[in-house]
Fold:
Amino acid sequence: MVGLLLYTALAACNLYVIATRIGTMWWLLIPSALLAWVLADFVSGLVHWAGDTLGNPNIPILGPGIIRPFREHHLDQKAICHHDMIETNAASAFAGIPILALCLLMTHALPGAFFLFAASVMVLLCLFSSFTNQIHKWAHADAPPKWVVQLQEWRIFLNPVHHKKHHTFPFNNHYCITNGWLNDFLCKVSFFRHLEKALGHTGKPTE
Ligand SMILES: [Zn+2]
Ligand SMILES: [Zn+2]
Structure:
């Protein structure tokens, strides 16, 4: 709970600082949001791949925080639908705390449009990423809210039919779970296979 309060306070401070400093450069928020939405998809894919593939559920911190939830999700896809808001979003929010603290320092200490843009991207990336598990949960829900279904159909949120590709043999692609925009591209260039090769990993999850 303390972590969630800290996350919320840091996010609010960052948004306040950006809002007060951005002035006539408000239009920077449009490319910032778009870039952050794409990066959030990439980060979700990277974290999901790592959770599915690397380490094991018993290692400290990352085991219970990332690895176990992703591994268990493959055994019971619907379990995520029974998680409450805190269980769904807490781990992603905690990961954003150091980044939000850094952004706050950056917007205070470094002047100029570039750093404002960079801070906006990072802050929005944290906000979007903290929402990723909720979007993933909706992709498995039997009856998500109507507005969510519409966003899923427009492919702004992860589309359930698209996400099924990840839950289909051989279960080693389509890891991105925010909007899924990068999945086909990363699959086509064998991004995760190259990453496994670079790390000397077989690509098979360890128990
Ligand atoms: Zn998975
Ligand atoms: Zn899933």
